[in-house]
Amino acid sequence: MIGDAALSAFSVFFMQSPSFLDDQRRMQKERGRNNAGSLFGVHQIPSTQQIGNLLDPISRTHLDAVFMNLVDAAHQQGALETHRQADGRLLIALDGTEYHGSCAIGCPQCSTRTLNSGQTQFYHVAITPVIVAPGQSDVFPLPAAFVHPQDGQEKQDCELSAAKRWLQQWGEHTASWRTTLLGDDLYCHQPFCEHVLAQGCAFLFVCLPTSHQLLYEWVADFERNGEVSTLVKTRWTGRERLTNTYRWLNDLPLRDGDDALRVGWCELTTTDAQGRVLYHNAWASSEPVSAENVVAFVAAGRSRWKVENENNNTLKTQGYHFEHNYGHGKQHLASLLASLILLAFLVHTLLDRLDLAYRAVRRELPSRRTFFEHLRALTQYLYFRLLGAAV
Hints:
Elements: H1 2-15, H2 20-31, H3 35-40, H4 48-55, H5 64-76, E1 90-93, E2 96-102, E3 111-114, E4 120-127, E5 130-132, E6 140-141, E7 145-147, H6 159-175, E8 179-183, H7 190-198, E9 202-206, H8 213-224, E10 229-236, E11 241-253, E12 262-271, E13 277-285, H9 294-302, H10 306-317, H11 333-354, H12 356-364, H13 368-381
Helix pairs in contact: 1-4, 1-11, 2-13, 5-11, 11-12
């Protein structure tokens, strides 16, 4: 029954239809067969309450290997080659996102905070690592890391600690793909950077002056001596001409002390024809920066935003309802259901990349919303069986 509960929950997220199981129960009653069984392998459709009760004790870690097996298979079939950079590396962006918040519903796995009203809010945060690439709209979700209370720890868990646990579990595995980790300034500190390098990965993290004062003092010293390498490029957007100014240095200390990690540093400033700054950001890199790679490094660093735009926003606004409370439970239900939603998104992405029939239909129905509206209607009224399966 646990398998039926997990597959039933996954079917709802895959179909993006909260009523999918109700429709299939009705089909079973009227026709003696249903699509939950034929398409998803559900032997007996459980009730919503049964799904919650059966899955609540199950840790989402049981799904982690499913994610990695799927991505490994995609990697072996060359589906990730479009995401490789000029140096052959894959980019994995890290970011935290909330997927539950309530003053009324909580569980022992929740984090808590006190609101201005004095109320205690219970919430969940997931670190959602995804494979991204400049110029590519597809992202490939990897197993998430969840912020939750840790045994023997009095301090509340945090995003950085969850990311470290993820690296400890999956860093060596992803390093075999030749990966560079992307992240905001939260990750750009020596203990975490050393942890990344120890797993065999490279890093390219946002590096802000407010949290890296010594590094920027060195930058200022090189500026005074006219020793900051600079590359200026102009581009026409179709409406206006913009100027991109790239600057970079190498062998800068990430922190104070003789044991400071030495990093490469690069910066991009984009200005319009009037000299107004439209964009500015900077990154610290475990790899040396040069005139040959600075443009690619900056493009890679900027693609970090795809974890928010193409992943988190898609999960929250494009039918996956990542923030919806499908069932909170008292143990692991919230994080398990969140993982099943991420798994559905990964499977959709892989089908769109690898399955010719799926891609052909998506070309005819490019809107994600329209595609799933048709899929829901078809499976509500018609019975389907997998090719090669018994009638």
